[in-house]
């Protein structure tokens, strides 16, 4: 039978189906392989998109955290600066109050000294036909006029009222009439304080030129306390306030030298702790 089929005319019809089946199978395998590859590519693209999205999200989160940290740093720095400024203002106010109390003590001391110099009798000597007029005390010149105590108190009242130019004039007149008074160094110091207060008022009003001029004058007046009255009780206070005025003028190195001079020569002064704190803050 095989020989019959082999030689038969039906042979092509038997071979072609076999070949067609093989081609179909081969084409099906190719389609399956291509489809799998496309699926892999699609999956890779999906994974890449997910990774890219994650990177963008991570970058956004990082930028957000960095922005928050930077904002917090600025806020903390601003708060620290405000606290330092408030502390400086409090220290300045405390220094001014200490100076006022010191001036009051000087007034009381001068008054006690004046009372101790008065004679107990107060009248003319007995048995004499004529009495000799008592010599004027150092606090009361022979030309008359207000006493040293009265002159000083009047100028200080003007300062307390904020009448700084009038106070400066009054203290200068006091120094002209009573150069040897125990209150002379205090009068000179309050001249410096008056100019310093004028500078503060100018700064508040936004007048930089007036502020600078008044600060420079305050430095000169404080320096006169140190030069003209080196043994006076106002020297440590004048040194400290001179340093503050120099800081306002942006003369930091000179201000540091004045604070150091105060610590070196007046370590027991009331202003010494303030000078030490201020100097430490400047060196940071």
Task: Please outline what is shown here.
The protein has helices at 2-7, 11-117, 148-160, 164-177, 184-204, 208-228, 235-248, 252-265, 272-283.
Written account of the structure:
- The chain has about 280 residues and is mainly α.
- The chain has a domain at about 85-105 and about 145-284: Tetratricopeptide repeat domain (Serine Threonine Protein Phosphatase 5, Tetratricopeptide repeat).
- The protein has nine helices and no strands.
- The termini are far apart.
Write the layout of secondary structure elements.
Layout: H1 2-7, H2 11-117, H3 148-160, H4 164-177, H5 184-204, H6 208-228, H7 235-248, H8 252-265, H9 272-283
Helix pairs in contact: 3-4, 4-5, 5-6, 5-7, 6-7, 7-8, 8-9
- The CATH architecture assignment of the domain at 83-106 and 146-283 turns out to be Alpha Horseshoe
Q: Largest beta sheet, briefly?
A: none
Report the strand count: 0
CATH domain class name of the domain at 83-106 and 146-283: Mainly Alpha
CATH evolutionary superfamily of the domain at 83-106 and 146-283: Tetratricopeptide repeat domain
Which class of secondary structure composition applies to the elements? mainly alpha
Order of SSEs: HHHHHHHHH
The name of the CATH topology of the domain at 83-106 and 146-283 is Serine Threonine Protein Phosphatase 5, Tetratricopeptide repeat
User: Gap between N and C termini, in Å?
Assistant: 115 Å
Secondary structure tally, helices: 9
